[in-house]
Amino acid sequence: MIMRPRLTQRSAYLMAGCALFITIMILLYPSVAFRASIEGLRVWWEIVFPALLPFFVAAEVLMAFGVVHFIGVLLEPLMRPVFDVPGVGAFALAMGITGGYPIGAKITASLRRKGLCNQIEGERLASFTNTADPLFMSGAVAVGMFQSPELGGIISGVHYISAVIVGILLRLHGRTGSLRVPERDVRTKGNLFKRAKEELDKARQADGRPVGQVFGDSVRDSISSLLVVGGFIMMFSVIIEVLTTSGILKLVEASLVFIARPLKVKDALISPMIRGFFEITLGTELASKAQAPLLDRLVITNAIIAWSGLSVFGQVSAMVSGTDIRMTPYFVSRFIHAAIAAAITVVSMSPYGQGIIKLVSPVFVMGSGIAQAPYYLRLLSSFTKFLTIIAVMVALSVALWLIQRIQLVFIRVKGVK
């Protein structure tokens, strides 16, 4: 049985106060709230819904058919030593990279509910597999906002490299005290592919639903999840607009300008940081247009994309509800991810750094022209990228497994002598 984390009394008071404040602001500015709600609905219906629905459905179907269990066994030799998470975490990572926010968190929650990871492993996975998608970074940000397609590789490469670094650092989470990760019964002996097939057969038999029911349940559950995502997009669109109209964000901006000047942060970058704290798209758009050097704008943009905004934070919270996955590790990891992304951005603009980005980014990045392609081509490109990432990780995992087997045989032969 999965125990759900309880809301503390202080948190309950804080949430109640915020809800009351937002309600009052909406009542004071009803027309502004209505227009913002319509705009949020448009963004969800025209962009988010068609982009995420196929990935949500595919994830549910692959889990029901045991494919995720199959992949999990194959990728255990890679995911366990690198990130200290089960092999099925690679599925959440690959889907998170290609599908974008918040599918990594949704898949992680599903893995937790099915008992394929424990609480600490779920918190690790939710914190680094929930990433922005390459179409958003290469198309919307690089091409649409910066008017520079060549920046797509840098923005995407920085984001995913920093996410992997966060995943490695999260090995430290749950190492001490009451947070110690329980030992998992993972078999490591025997043929890797045979064990993977056995897990696939076992998972399919355990599910037992006919194909038609699997697809029906997957579509229904996915649409239900996307309705929640749409609600968060609309609400945060309203919140940002009423706070802007009321002048509250201007007061916050003036205060931060006074604090940031001694730190040599340009005044033009304060507004993007404030908007990006709430919502990723608005923040990155303002950062791209700020009156500041390109490097400074890229640093803020990559930090905002890594942080992802309170809107995505709310979506993740909804996705993991009903599990014992806590949001505090996710919240802290967003700050760490943003700081690492900002630092890597500075390095990536050097000649040596650009060489590393060009070496890594082809695995993750989609061509900038895909963003303007018809929907079916964008969808095909996303799933092709997903298969490419899975194939690369499987190849690395099998290579590590073979190396371990060779070392074991060598030790045995040496011991016999």
Q: What is shown here, in short?
A:
This protein is mostly helical and 417 residues long.
How do the helices and strands line up, and which of them pair or pack?
Blueprint: H1 9-28, H2 30-64, H3 67-83, H4 89-99, H5 103-113, H6 119-128, H7 134-145, H8 151-169, H9 192-207, H10 211-246, H11 248-260, H12 270-278, H13 280-289, H14 294-307, H15 309-319, H16 327-348, H17 351-360, H18 375-416
Helix pairs in contact: 2-10, 3-9, 3-18, 4-5, 4-18, 5-6, 6-8, 6-16, 7-8, 8-14, 8-16, 8-17, 10-15, 12-13, 12-14, 13-14, 14-16
Major sheet description? none
Number of helices: 18
Low-confidence stretches: 177-187
Gap from first CA to last CA: 51 Å
Q: Hey, roughly how much beta strand do the residues contain?
A: under 5%
Query: What percent of the residues sit in helical stretches (DSSP H or I)?
Result: over 70%
Number of strands: 0
Describe the 3D structure.
The protein is mainly α and 417 residues long. The chain has one domain (28-176, 189-416). 76% of the residues lie in helices and 0% in strands. The protein has helices at 9-28, 30-64, 67-83, 89-99, 103-113, 119-128, 134-145, 151-169, 192-207, 211-246, 248-260, 270-278, 280-289, 294-307, 309-319, 327-348, 351-360, 375-416. Helix 8 (151-169) crosses helix 14 (294-307) and helix 14 (294-307) packs antiparallel against helix 16. The longest helix is centred in the last third of the chain and has 42 residues, at 375-416.
